[in-house]
Specification:
The protein is of the alpha/beta class and 129 residues long. It has five helices and six strands; from the N terminus they run αβαββαβαβαβ.
Length: 129
């Protein structure tokens, strides 16, 4: 198991470099490092899927803010910009869009954890329904 200091360091590197951890758009190869570990201590986990998708299974403790709803922008803007966020969806497409919108709105500590299973694997947070 990773030591907490290693997980925190990996999280910081991902945030500082702007690299989306476990993003579906990340380049991979046979020699690529194993999936990054995302430290969720103190972070708000946001599931940007529809409420129906969320109900069928989501990361434990996640907040559902539907990217496709008309209220997405206002819900995101009501969040503290200086907090930490881990965002995921079904496959990584919507989470990438949500993270881009959040960064454009001034959020600086946002990680794209990709799809649901990728997010669970990288954070260690179980999927619950």
């Amino acid at each position: 198991m990773w030591k907490r200091s290693t997980a925190v360091a990996l999280f910081a590197v991902a945030v500082l470099t702007g690299t989306a951890a476990c993003s579906s758009s990340s380049a991979t190869s046979d020699t690529a490092a194993p999936t990054s570990v995302v430290d969720v201590a103190g972070a708000t986990i946001i599931d940007v899927r529809t409420p129906e998708e969320f109900t069928s299974g989501h990361l434990e403790g996640a907040t559902n803010i539907n990217l496709q709803s008309s209220g997405f922008t206002s819900q995101i803007q009501s969040l503290p910009k200086d907090s930490s966020y881990v965002v995921y969806c079904r496959s990584g497409n919507r989470s990438a869009e949500a993270v881009a919108q959040m960064k454009a709105a001034g959020f600086t500590n946002v990680v794209d954890a990709g799809g649901l299973q990728e997010a669970s694997d990288s954070t260690g947070v179980p999927v619950v329904s």
